[in-house]
Write a structure and sequence with these properties.
Strand content of chain B: under 5%
CATH class of chain B: Mainly Alpha
Largest sheet of chain A: 7 strands, mixed
Number of helices of chain B: 14
Order of helices and strands of chain B: HHHHHHHEEEHHHHEHHH
Organism (chain B): Streptomyces gilvosporeus
Subcellular location (chain B): Cell membrane
Radius of gyration of chain A: 20 Å
Keywords (chain B): Cell membrane, Membrane, Transmembrane, Transmembrane helix
Number of strands of chain B: 4
Membrane topology (chain B): Multi-pass membrane protein
Order of helices and strands of chain A: HHEHEEHEHEEHEHEHEHEEH
Oligomer: heterodimer
Number of strands of chain A: 11
Largest sheet of chain B: 2 strands, antiparallel
CATH topology of chain B: ABC transporter involved in vitamin B12 uptake, BtuC
Number of domains of chain B: 1
Helix content of chain B: 55-70%
GO molecular function, one term (chain B): transmembrane transporter activity
């Protein structure tokens, strides 16, 4: 796991444990101290190798753990990546992941449609500024692409043109007000949003890397008395986050299924370890896509949107 | 220092009287020596002027209001960190204790339906108890503060995670725990109750350090622990009290954090340990103990936030914020070393 402080990963851990009991396999959980704690992941992989485990399920922190994963595969362990595919995808035997770019894209398409041709002044609340993590880049770029804005780079945030025209929805002009790091936490989201608002008080669209960042942004907007005129787009799909759709805090939330990924992962290792065959990947993708969808209180014509209660039937966390 | 020192004597004023400054450098040196908060104050004013010139939104009172609101959590922690660093100690666990206290307060209200005031007091008791543990390990088992708090950093973080199970707790407005987020307008300046509490904390601890025997003893212990012991000061009691004052500051920080977050979040406040030390160091308090004023730490915290905010307004890559803070820390410690150096 990346951390056990984020409910997303806690939910994964819970469903993995449930599945492990069902399949009668023993499961050891290791987690980093913070998001991006690569060193702890490498140590955990080495520990799994020396313990003689059958397989590893990992929510990889990025390329820095690839060498350790290769060591594990050479030692005969099955490596299954969860949540995010490693780069290149072949590092893992199999990946159960959500398509983060697709999640961002669904949010972006909804945002463009909701604007209905009005000018967009966009705050981009990213995860980090000090390291490149694929989920950060994929969600950010996905959102821009969904809006119909060229991200201007393959592997870096903030390289799009600062203003221009978005082609999504009825299309219109846009301005990027800021890219600020949030660490994916509420306090980080709040400070980032406050600074963005100071820089550009006309912001009307907020992209948030995850629900906590979106939550912090909402706190900042509310304190400034602007929460009614700004649409926040989050990604996660936790049960608590979906309630924010009904209450109007978030305009839309791209939902993902961390528990499903973990349960499928544990099940696959159990089968492989007992001589079963390798599960297949989703057509046209290098990984097994566990799906994503956009949920919103207001349906928009031409887009497939789940209602908050539909999405809540598969939500995670409390 | 003689071995039979008068317990009420302090060394600094006599030294200053003897060395009447002559050259301009010596004069500046002397002023900075007497006013540890002066050099950071100059940096803060300069930074504010530069950012105002670069971006006309910076000086807007609305923006300055935000900067001081953003600083309230770290500013409160920095009070406790200053008191501990003045004793030549350090507290690496201060942010971890705050996250624990803020989660406990929120959870007691949201899940256990405790009255807000009782939950707030419970959070404060836990914060002070946690710091008393730090203090006891330092005084009774004689472990270095760095090691003690490095250990308790992990312990308190783990307890928080076990307790929170990774969940965020949202609170309803109107609860006393959320009172710190309520806005108070002073003309064009929009402060929050949290900012006012932080300023009150500075006033109280600042007064105690300057005008009470406890404060004098604290400086004496930080300056030269053996001399303080020989002067009849109960060193262990002073050290323990410093950590417990740290606990009080943490409780205030946790209360303000709950207001900013809108509840408890195990991920919020994770960088607070180092940020509080950064604020203290930039604020002119010596990491070697015995020199500094608590007010300087508020200026230190403000300097960091002014840079972060100013660079964000100017649309500069956030990495440069991190770079600027690093340079400030090195510069602040260099100035401290220069001020402490023996006068020629």
């Amino acid at each position: 796991m990346k951390t056990l402080t984020n409910p997303y990963f806690v939910s994964m851990e819970k469903d993995a444990k449930t599945q492990a009991t069902k399949d009668n396999v023993s499961l050891t959980v290791a987690a980093g101290n913070t998001d991006g704690d690569t060193q702890t992941q490498i140590t955990a992989i080495d520990n799994a190798i020396s313990r003689g485990d059958k397989g590893i399920l990992i929510t990889t922190n990025g390329d820095a753990v690839n060498a350790a994963l290769n060591r594990a595969k050479q030692a005969g362990l099955f490596v299954i990546a969860l949540d995010t595919a490693p780069n290149p995808a072949g590092i893992a035997n199999l990946t159960y992941a959500t398509d983060n770019a697709q999640a961002g894209k669904l949010d972006g398409q909804y945002a463009a449609a909701a604007l209905n041709g009005k000018p967009a002044v966009i705050a981009m609340l990213d995860l980090f500024n000090n390291q490149v993590v694929s989920v950060d880049i994929n969600r950010d770029h996905g959102f821009l692409e969904g809006m119909g804005i060229n991200p201007g780079s393959k592997g870096e945030n903030g390289k799009e043109a600062k203003s221009g025209t978005y082609s999504g929805g009825k299309s219109g002009t846009y301005t990027i007000a800021c890219h600020q790091p949030t660490q994916g936490a509420i306090d980080g989201g709040r400070t980032a949003m406050e600074n963005c608002l100071s820089a550009n008080p006309d912001i009307n669209v907020v992209y948030a890397i995850n629900e906590p960042a979106g939550e912090g942004a909402y706190n900042a907007l509310k304190a400034a008395g602007k929460e009614k005129n700004v649409a926040i787009y989050a990604i996660d799909g936790s049960c608590a986050g979906l309630k924010n759709l009904t209450s109007g805090e978030f305009a839309a939330d791209a939902v993902q299924y961390p528990g499903k990924m973990a349960a499928l992962g544990v099940d696959s290792i159990a089968k492989l370890a007992r001589g079963g065959s390798k599960p297949s990947v989703t057509d046209g993708k290098s990984f097994h896509d566990t799906g994503t969808a956009v949920a919103a209180a207001k349906p928009l014509g031409g887009l497939t949107v789940q209602t908050p209660s539909q999405a809540a039937s598969a939500c995670w966390g409390n | 220092m003689t071995t039979h020192a008068d317990p009420h004597a302090t060394t600094a004023p006599a030294e200053e009287l003897l060395n009447r400054p002559a050259t301009l450098t010596q004069r500046i040196h002397s002023v900075l020596h007497r006013q540890p908060a002066l050099s950071p104050a100059i940096v803060l004013v300069l930074a504010a002027v530069v950012f105002s010139l670069v971006n006309d939104r910076f000086y807007a009172l609305q923006n300055l209001s935000l900067v001081i609101q953003q600083v309230a959590v770290i500013g409160s922690l920095a009070v406790g960190q200053t008191v501990i660093i003045l004793t030549a100690g350090i507290d690496l666990s201060i942010g971890a204790v705050m996250v624990l206290a803020s989660l406990l307060m929120s959870k007691l209200v949201a899940d256990n339906h405790w009255p807000g005031v009782v939950a707030l007091l419970a959070g404060a008791v836990v914060a002070i108890a946690a710091q008393a543990l730090n203090g006891l390990l330092v005084t009774k088992i004689k472990l270095p503060p760095f090691i003690v708090t490095l250990g308790t950093l992990s312990i308190f973080t783990a307890i928080t995670l076990i307790y929170a199970k990774g969940q965020t707790i949202a609170l309803q407005p109107g609860n006393i725990l959320m009172w710190t987020a309520n806005t108070v307008s002073l003309g064009q300046l929009n402060l929050t109750n949290g900012v006012l509490i932080m300023i009150a904390l500075y006033a109280v601890i600042g007064y105690a350090l300057r005008y009470t025997a406890w404060g004098r003893h604290l400086y004496a212990v930080g300056d030269d622990v053996e001399a303080a012991r020989l002067a009849g000061i109960s060193v262990n009691r002073v050290l323990l009290s410093a950590y417990m004052v740290g606990g009080l500051a943490i409780a205030v920080g946790a209360w303000i954090l709950v207001g900013r977050v809108g509840g408890g979040d195990p991920n919020s406040g994770l960088n607070a340990n180092l940020q509080s030390i950064t604020a203290v160091v930039i604020g002119g308090t010596s990491l070697f103990g015995g020199r500094g004023v608590v007010f300087g730490s508020l200026i230190g915290a403000l300097i960091v936030q002014v840079f972060v905010n100013g660079l964000a307004l100017a649309g500069i890559d956030p990495n440069y914020q991190v770079l600027a803070v690093g340079i400030l820390v090195i510069a602040a410690v260099s100035v401290d070393q220069w001020i402490r150096s023996v006068k020629s």
